[in-house]
Amino acid sequence: MKRRLFAMALTLMLVLSLAACGSSYKNESEATMPMAPMEAPMTEEMEGSYDASYGDSAMGSPMDVLADQKLIYTANLSLETTSFDEAVKALTDLTNDCGGYFENSTVGDRGSGYSWANYTIRVPAKQFQSFLDQAGEVAHLTWCNTNQENITEVYYDTQGRLETQKIKLERLQELLRQAKAMEDIISLESAISETEWQIDNLSGTMRHYDALVDYSTINVDLNEVYRLSNTEIAPLTFGQRLGNALSEGLRNFGDGMEDLAVALAYSWLWIVLLAVILIVVWNVVRKVRRKRLAPKGTEDQTEDKK
Predict the structure, then answer these.
(1) For residue 115, which of 88, 152, 92, 155 has the smallest C-alpha distance?
(2) Phi and psi at residue 215, in whole multiples of 5°?
(3) How far apart are CA 197 and CA 174, in angstroms?
(4) What DSSP string describes 29-77?
(5) Mean of per-residue pLDDT scores for the chain
(6) Tally: H helices and E strands in the chain
(7) What is the pTM of this model?
(8) What percent of the chain is modeled with pLDDT above 90?
(9) Which tens digit of pLDDT belongs to each residue from 73-90?
(10) Mind giving me the DSSP string for 70-84?
């Protein structure tokens, strides 16, 4: 029994001594281990520059992409007016105020005293929406259609091809200066000529794209009318709807009779000619019918008298 107690005590002392040795070794290791250098504190200037650089990398790229987009804006407008000359003057003033110009202009007369015009107007892209907002003040706006075309991809693709052709031209010209054999000179001159043609073609395409992007296109149809359409306020009750329908029907009937009278006035000569032809035909038909209906003896007596 004593031996067992002695063995257990000896074992416990060995465990405690080993634990103490491990703890001292750990403390010595931590004491002798070199400490990592502390980072210098970030000043306000350094923090500001860090934030700015981070903002440029995170937010700058999307904004740059949006800013570099190439968009073509077009619109089609239909306008009505009861005073054609005043509407044309107002449209011209609006175009000038927006910094635009008339690219095409066609003016005509329907022969009934009412004029019409088709205009192709170019305004700076920044003034596109402003022009549309003020178009209703020039004349009565009956229809408007807008379109936005994104040509960013094809634009920068064309620009890259243009830069490639310019670099190619420089290299060909350098090779031409170093060439001595006639065959090489002729081949290089042919390649240079083709490259210059490609550069001119791509440059023209780029100018065309720039013109479409910088200046929006607005097609305007201006019509002079006797009465503006779609100007009545929508009725709220059945009586108002019925009253408007009756008045509009009477108005349309009057307009139809006026148009009919004008059409007859234009074609009066044809009407007279048609009336003469109908009278002649009617007389011939009457004579033929009388001969067929007359008794046979009457016809013989008529022939004897002749």
Answers:
(1) 88
(2) -120, 120
(3) 18
(4) HHHHSPPPPPPPPPPHHHHHHHHHHHHIIIIIHHHHHHHT--EEEEEEE
(5) 77
(6) 10, 5
(7) 0.56
(8) 43
(9) 999 999 999 899 999 999
(10) -EEEEEEEEEEES-H
